[in-house]
Specification:
- By secondary structure, this protein is of the alpha/beta class.
- The protein is built from 34 helices and 25 strands.
- A 7-stranded parallel β-sheet has the order 5-6-4-7-15-3-16, with helices on both faces.
């Protein structure tokens, strides 16, 4: 309230900021007028002159006015020439010159902020301005889109400007060779998807030679649909993995067991958080079925975890809403876009549980080789910016996690769309009756209608109702995605009626014919409020493009999921008390505020969940940074012998200390130390008698003797082998040990993350415990890398030639493939609700997109429930 009063008197920060850019816009336009007097030869010298100025010490910001004016004038010249080019196999005429609001958007992107621009306002052209300016630094600019089609289209489209001005443009896409990708990354400006940039980063950090790496350093990135990538996909790590060798029979067994359990009697379901908990009666029932006395002591927590996954699959995840069964496979449905996500799998055994439930082939889980979340990948860039039509509702998260301010850019033409208040109904049936009547009226007038639903199931119910009312229509959902282009092309025609499951994210403008505009423009009807206001706003944004007429309204009922989960009972009772019929809409500010409040609650919960998960991810991110830096030092250094010696001098004393700490010298067990040293290699000090001779009361004397013995032995072996061969051997075994132990470390950390939440039952801070254990694990990882490398060096024998132990390259691993499925995948999808773990997309080259579960929701154990610590005792007698 105070904020609104302040803004009404003094104006908002956003308005003031936009106004402050006006002088720069005027200077750009004035400079562009000057360029109109230049010959083409003179004008095209600009790029080289700018590059020289930057090399001589000026910054990109110093030449912003001239660079933006150059891009604008290039657009003018291409327009005046009636320049044509081929885009998406179609001859296209260039006819775009940036408006002032687009210049403002470009400045905002250059400054490392997020620009919110409405649908149809020309975000693609806006991105060309900061892309050109920052590319002049010669460090590369990445333009990030959500699918390969948009990456290729935008590179062809904006490439007309860049290539005219003398810059190079490349595209990285799935299926391109390393050579093609390296060439694309070496271009001034590179287009690609968020997935591909992330995968290439991981692959580069698995390369076994510098020649296999393709990327340059992460300098500046502009993200299109930034909210989709950094919010919806925030917790979606890209994972390179290989198949694990785990039996799938247990999932079939658990699927049978949970069919014998009853909700409330044996387990509790939390619909809001999509979580379940086995209660004591359920545990006893399972023990009876499995014919065991104590499931915790005889089967362990892993069994409980798989049982709970099976119950989730049975009672929470619904066919044709959360997933579909197609060609014998479970395919996830994106809850934000309604698209099928072939190749993507729920993780932590949930996908296997659903496969067992539906009676299709149960596929094995995978073993992670490398991973990174989008949150952490995009924070690698020196500068980051983004564009979207809907960012304001997530401004706090962009600022908190990515340090990105959000600025709303005014539209070039005023929005004349009529956003009507919600039509609120007492029941779903009444809502549908009224909705069909409204569609019938609009269709009769020739007004095109777009109806947005939140699930496949509801789109098909509504389709049947329209069919019964003899209203011709098209349905666009995950089951009919093959006809998407045709359906969208026809959606703006006179009298067209289209039902779309979560239209948000389709990435296609619905263009209206003149007769459709005269009939009132596009009518958008939302059949339910989404959990996210942002998705609702995206649906509204399909109408009223570039100043077109249009109308939007949401039809909602007290039985809708969002309202039901957040307490619609009082509102429904109020409507009953007034005797309001089921199909009579009301417009009530109290109910509308309650809906917005429910949405804000969900958004806040999701934000807190992502922030909480990021605290854990940041720990692993630090580990990744340390290991990847170590690996790259090895990869790009021809002679690493000195580094290996330093590591041996650092870690061999720790190895000895494992046997001597907290003991007096007379208590040292030299036999035990000698045996341990013998496991490292055949060295003189792996002898208890010799150790005793060199041991004094000073532990440093003993560790120095062993360290020098190891170094001398390695040097002796080195003398009998050609220098180049030995250096190559050192690099190969170092990389091999890092990769193998890093893979094991990822597994270990994943298990730690799953189990650490149990610390909450003992009144300990799970995050603190995770950080503490993770630090110990990292120290052990670095220690084991050195010890294993030392072992390999001590095992090599004198020989004129040396058999090199190679690091395993990605292409040498046995990787699951589903390339055909991925060809059909469109834009990257969005994360489900906070507690839904989503698994991998596995590509033919071994790249896999996973979704990782957030930290498990801790449901407080009942006093008589089994203690989660695994003791087998009741909670009240253990940690209660």
């Amino acid at each position: 309230m105070i904020t609104k009063m302040w803004e009404s008197v003094f104006g908002s920060y956003n308005d003031k900021y936009i106004k402050s850019l006006s002088p720069q816009v005027q200077k750009i336009n004035k400079k562009e007028e000057e360029y109109q007097q230049l010959s083409e030869v003179e004008f095209l010298k600009n790029t080289q002159l700018f590059q020289e100025r930057i090399q001589n010490g000026e910054t990109s910001s110093d030449i912003l006015i001239e660079a933006f004016a150059t891009v604008k004038h290039a657009c003018r010249r291409l327009t005046e020439k009636k320049h044509t080019f081929i885009m998406s196999a179609t001859e296209t005429l260039w006819e775009m010159i940036p408006f002032d609001v687009q210049l403002i958007g470009g400045i905002i992107l250059h400054e490392g902020k997020i620009a919110e621009m409405k649908t149809g306002e020309g975000k693609t052209l806006v991105s060309s301005l900061p892309a050109y300016l920052n590319a002049l630094e010669g460090k590369g600019v990445h333009l990030v889109t959500v699918n390969d089609y948009l990456a290729s289209r935008d590179a062809e489209w904006m490439g007309q400007i860049f290539e005219y001005l003398g810059l190079t443009v490349g595209v990285v896409a799935h299926g391109k060779s390393p050579t093609e990708k390296r060439e694309a990354y070496n271009c001034d400006i590179t287009y690609g998807t968020n997935n591909e940039f992330g995968f290439d980063y991981l692959r580069d950090n698995m390369a076994v030679s510098p020649e296999q790496q393709v990327m340059r350093a992460q300098h500046y990135a502009i993200l299109d649909e930034v909210d989709s990538i950094l919010i919806d996909e925030a917790r979606t790590p890209l994972i390179i993995s290989t198949a694990a060798e785990e039996s799938t029979e247990k999932y079939l067994e658990y699927a049978k067991i949970v069919k014998m359990l009853q909700p409330e009697t044996h387990y509790i379901v939390d619909e809001k958080d999509r979580a379940i908990r086995l209660i004591e009666a359920g545990i006893e029932k399972v023990e009876e079925i499995m014919n065991i006395d104590n499931i915790y002591s005889e089967k362990g927590f892993e069994t409980i975890h798989h049982l709970e996954s099976a119950i989730k699959a049975q009672s929470i995840f619904q066919r044709d809403k959360d997933y579909v069964v197609k060609d014998g496979e479970i395919i996830i449905v994106d809850e934000f876009t309604g698209r099928l996500m072939p190749g993507r799998r729920y993780s932590l055994g949930l996908h296997q549980s659903i496969e067992a439930k539906e009676g299709v082939e149960v596929r094995r889980e995978s073993k992670t080789l490398a991973s990174i979340t989008f949150q952490n990948y995009f924070r690698l860039y020196n500068k980051l910016s983004g564009m979207t039509g809907t960012a304001a509702t997530e401004a706090e998260e962009f600022a908190s996690i990515y340090s990105l301010d959000t600025i709303i850019i005014p539209t070039n033409k005023p929005i004349v769309r009529d956003d009507r208040p919600d039509a609120i109904f007492k029941s779903i049936q009444g809502k549908y009756e009224s909705l069909v009547e409204r569609v019938k009226e609009a269709h009769a007038d020739g007004q095109p209608v777009l109806i947005g639903t939140i699930s496949i199931e509801k789109s098909e119910v509504l389709s049947q109702l329209l069919h019964n009312a003899r209203i011709p229509h098209n349905v666009l959902n995950a089951k009919h995605h093959e006809r998407e282009a045709e359906i969208i092309m026809n959606a703006g025609k006179f009298g067209a009626v289209t039902i779309a499951t979560n239209m948000a994210g389709r990435g296609t403008d619905i263009k209206l014919k003149p007769d459709a505009l005269e009939a009132g423009g596009l009518l958008v009807i939302g059949t339910e409020r989404h959990e996210s206001r942002r998705i609702d706003n995206q649906l509204r944004g399909r109408s009223g493009r570039q100043g077109d007429t249009g109308e939007t309204q949401f039809f909602i009922s007290m039985d809708d999921d969002l309202l039901r989960l957040f307490g619609s009972e009082k509102m429904k009772s109020m409507m009953d008390s007034f005797g309001i019929p089921d199909n009579m809409p009301i417009e009530n500010s109290f109910i509308s505020k309650a809906i917005e409040s429910a949405q804000k609650k969900v958004e806040t919960r999701n934000f807190e969940s992502r922030k909480h998960v990021l605290q854990y991810d940041d720990v692993m991110n630090k580990h990744r940074e340390i290991v990847y830096n170590k690996r790259n030092d090895i990869l790009h250094n021809e002679d690493i012998h000195e580094n290996i010696e330093k590591d041996i001098q650092k870690y061999i004393p720790r190895f000895i200390h494992n046997f001597t700490d907290e003991k007096q010298p007379e208590e040292w067990n030299f036999e035990e130390i000698a045996k341990a040293l013998f496991t490292i290699g055949k060295i003189k000090s792996a002898n208890s008698a010799i150790l005793k001779q060199h041991a004094t009361d000073n532990i440093e004397t003993l560790t120095d003797f062993v360290t020098n013995d190891i170094l001398d032995t390695i040097d002796h072996k080195k003398d009998g082998i050609p220098t180049d061969a030995f250096h190559h051997f050192e690099k190969s075994i170092s990389l091999s040990n890092i990769d193998r132990l890093w893979m094991e470390h990822i597994d270990e950390m994943s298990k730690l993350r799953e189990t650490v939440s149990l610390q909450a039952y003992a009144n300990k801070n799970p995050l603190f415990e995770y950080k503490h254990e993770a630090f110990t694990s990292l120290k052990n990882l670095l220690f084991n890398i050195t010890i294993n490398t030392t072992q390999d060096l001590l095992r090599v024998e004198k020989a004129p030639a040396i058999v090199v132990k190679k690091a395993v390259a990605l292409e040498d691993l046995k990787i699951k493939t589903n390339e055909d499925q991925l060809q059909s995948q469109g834009a990257t999808a969005s994360v489900p609700r906070p507690t839904t773990p989503v698994g991998p997309i596995t590509r033919a080259d071994g790249t896999v997109v996973h979704r990782v579960a957030p930290e498990p929701t801790v449901i407080k154990a009942g006093r008589n429930d089994p203690c989660p610590c695994g003791s087998g005792k009741k909670y009240k007698k253990c940690h209660g």
